[in-house]
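pasting Glycine cleavage system H protein for the record, 126 residues
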Amino acid sequence: MEASNNLYFSKEHTWIKIENDTGTIGITTFAQSELGEIVYVDLPSVGDEFEQDEVFGSVEALKTVSDLFMPLSGEVTAINENLLENPTLVNEKPFSEGWMVKMKVSNPNELSNLLSHEAYQKSINK
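structre below
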């Protein structure tokens, strides 16, 4: 898993990479490995606004569907349209080509509710 000072994790297994006031969001390696092969991704529309921990979409694997939870409050500025045609990018490259949405972060103070790489690793290795 990629470790970075600007990468944060939610307890719901989403990650967010912060660059200035923009966040790039995806699901963690742990989440996609637990789900199995991703066959469909349901993403929000550009301009949609979400609160922290609100459901912003879902991923469908061969045997289950899982909601996606927004790690920080903000407005969606881009979606990864490549996932609509090739959802397995979430499995193959979750931290690069498998990102899901980009957003303008509206409340950077919410970062304190997220986990560092080390804390997230501890939470999944219980």
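The CA atoms of residues 16 and 25 lie 4 Å apart.
The chain has a mean pLDDT of 93.
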